[in-house]
Amino acid sequence: MTDLLLRDVRPLGGAPLDVLVQGGRIAALAPGLAAPPGVAVEDGRGMLLLPGFVEGHTHLDKTTFHLPDWLVNEVGPRIEDKIDTEREWRARTGHDAGAASLAMAKAFLAAGTTRIRSHVDVDTAAGTRHVERVLETRATMAPVQEIQIVAFPQSGMLARQGTDRLLDAALAMGADIVGGLDPCAIERDPVRHLDIVFGLAQKHGKPVDIHLHEPGSMGAFSLDLILERTRALGMEGKVVVSHAFCLGDLAERERDALLARMAALGVAIATTAPASRPVPLVGPCRAAGVTIFGGNDGIRDTWTPYGSPDMLERAMLIGLRNNFRRDDEVALAFECVAGAGARGCGFGDHGLAPGARADLVLVEARSLAEAVVARPVRRLVVSAGRVAARDGALVA
Amino acid sequence: MTDLLLRDVRPLGGAPLDVLVQGGRIAALAPGLAAPPGVAVEDGRGMLLLPGFVEGHTHLDKTTFHLPDWLVNEVGPRIEDKIDTEREWRARTGHDAGAASLAMAKAFLAAGTTRIRSHVDVDTAAGTRHVERVLETRATMAPVQEIQIVAFPQSGMLARQGTDRLLDAALAMGADIVGGLDPCAIERDPVRHLDIVFGLAQKHGKPVDIHLHEPGSMGAFSLDLILERTRALGMEGKVVVSHAFCLGDLAERERDALLARMAALGVAIATTAPASRPVPLVGPCRAAGVTIFGGNDGIRDTWTPYGSPDMLERAMLIGLRNNFRRDDEVALAFECVAGAGARGCGFGDHGLAPGARADLVLVEARSLAEAVVARPVRRLVVSAGRVAARDGALVA
Predict the structure, then answer these.
(1) Neighboring chain B residues of A273 at a CB cutoff of 8 Å
(2) Which of A219, A270, A363, A367 is deepest in the core (most CB within 10 A)?
């Protein structure tokens, strides 16, 4: 790790200044800093400086991003179709979750993402193999990228006996977070599902992140059960609800009552801001004091051909979904893939301030809003003080 | 105009073949074509061949795309705020609709768009100046890009006396299409507004394209009046309704009744597929036999910081908005910025078939779906038989 002086950069589009990086952290931000002896100097040429991006909800293990052939998607419309199609495809092709996750993680880094929360499938067909392979990717990337692994029962836990023991094993071998999935709609026994999820969290002293696709009052019921357990078990600040689509179609009063409880318990929301269905909106969540942050969900996998390792594009999609047009609104969309993502996932020391981890991204843009809508090439990516990428490509 | 043989390309991802271009048109598509004497040969290296893209609804005159400074958006939430803000900004800055539209049109061409329908503001402040300047852009671009101009009363017609005469003048000087705007919500006198719009269409023998942002039953009422006039005046196939948001929030039976009438009258829909509100969906429109096609709306103007001259990106946003995941569905999203756009706007001879205008785009993609989701650089753009761009940049 070399120390670094970044000259003439505009943090979030503000006035130009210099950034001194020492020991992997931001030592100082001020105009006209002197380079200490032996410190490498980068000329930022007045570029926009952004903090490293946070991908708060993806599935590194599922992608076909690294494969030579295009995967033709012919999947059916139901969520169960997608789950079954994926499991069968994986078994048939011998999908390599290690190669997939490593290629994807590197693409994220080249585009400025220095922190990732990845859900990773655990099921009775694949066992803990995907977690094992993503743990290898995590170790490989550790010097320049922080990856959290959610042990995720994608194929359901209750209908497939032994999944709970596999999750237990995945957490014992290093997965960071206990995953869960639609306690009513998929699992069909919400109390039993959530008691297992929260039981594993208690056993391993690890947080929880639950996929909740359930709409309307069904989703509200599951969310209620989640909040009840969060409070009863003292897991404030340790629970994320991913998607939480129900918050997009409840009446405002019911929605706001749930948001108030989430805020009080420090339960955060991960959103991909899909365009095709009701979603929790950023404005009401923030107004209630709930942290809401962004992610791609899967990228070019058997579920979807969409997605991109570019978190500025995800910020744009969040902005479009929330009809954020003003510059101060677009800044909120960016916050979803930066500070809010770090808070929601528990990535420490994020941001552009002395003492923070030196995760820095330089782009040619006149303003933060322009960076989001134009998504210019990443001229420089610094992660934990190391130069990780230039001009969109990883440094060897 | 040079004739051209394009070797080894895969039309829409199909089997490799060659394309012979003569006199600005596709003369033949087949494997192993011989190059006639004197014909330039391009090696397509197995790249994906797409037809030239169609931008079906934009506002070339409004953009700030060409300006050195970023426009900070601080506009209010109502549509009237956006209309007033824009008119005042234009007057204050002396906005140059000629430079704006030319820069934007060129950016579209470099990204493969060879046909554009642009609404152009006509109002009592700017008069017909914007139309005059976009007519200049149209003339400049004519050899390589076909631009349709809609004379568009953005600031309303009824509240600003004389706007109808300005529209009349704009049509006389060469605008192609009569524009209109929210007959109830903005104009507040739907019959009078539509009678002027359709009266101008009759007088000039030109088609109609009406912005209809009105929601629900109000929008359905305006649409009913539009369809009534289309039939009464024998304007079948000559009317486009832009946005038609109401079709996104009506009950299915009412929606389908309107769609059936639209199909019978050849009334098409232009959609930007915004993520933040109900919109007409591609599936029901196509099932009813209604042509639905895509556009950006404004790009980086006082209304919105979003938008891109890349119609593959618009296709992606249409796909996301419609939850199109299967390859055959993503192909429908692409159709919205290609064949359907040409049909809806009345751009003739579009497509990849002998006799069609030789508007050709080459990209490195394994499939049509990949071209939409990955939006790769345009390696070659041919327009009316001329090589117009390479590697994303215009050829001089």
Answers:
(1) 275
(2) A270
Residues B38 and B2 sit within 8 Å (Cβ to Cβ): no
Q: What is the pLDDT along chain A (396 residues), one digit of tens a residue?
A: 579 999 999 999 999 999 999 999 999 999 999 999 989 999 999 999 999 999 999 999 999 999 999 999 998 888 889 888 998 899 899 999 999 999 999 999 999 999 999 999 999 999 999 999 999 999 999 999 999 999 999 999 999 999 999 999 999 999 999 999 999 999 999 999 999 999 999 999 999 999 999 999 999 999 999 999 999 999 999 999 999 999 999 999 999 999 999 999 999 999 999 999 999 999 999 999 999 999 999 999 999 999 999 999 999 999 999 999 999 999 999 999 999 999 999 999 999 999 999 999 999 999 999 999 999 999 999 999 999 999 999 998
**Does B40 share its domain with B85?**
no
Residues of B in contact with A73 (CB under 8 A): 325-327, 330, 369
Q: What Rg do the C-alpha atoms of chain B give, in angstroms?
A: 21
- Is residue A220 domain-shared with residue A369, that is, in the same domain? no
Do both B34 and B159 map to the same domain?
Answer: no
For B39, the domain range is: 4-52+351-394
Same domain, A308 and A371: no
Q: Do B325 and A316 touch (CB under 8 A)?
A: no
Same-domain pairing of A331 and A361: no
- Give the DSSP letter of residue A183: T
Per the structure, the count of domains in chain B is 2
> In B, what residues contact A, Cβ < 8 A?
69-70, 72-75, 273-277, 300, 303-307, 316-317, 319-323, 325-328, 330, 366-367, 369-370, 372-373
* Backbone CA torsion sign across B368, B54, B145, B358: positive
CATH code, domain with B35: 2.30.40.10
Q: What is the ipTM of this complex?
A: 0.97
User: Between A69, A275, A303, which is nearest B275 by CB?
Assistant: A275
Residues of B in Cβ contact (< 8 Å) with A327 = 72-74, 305
Structure tokens at B206: 């030109």
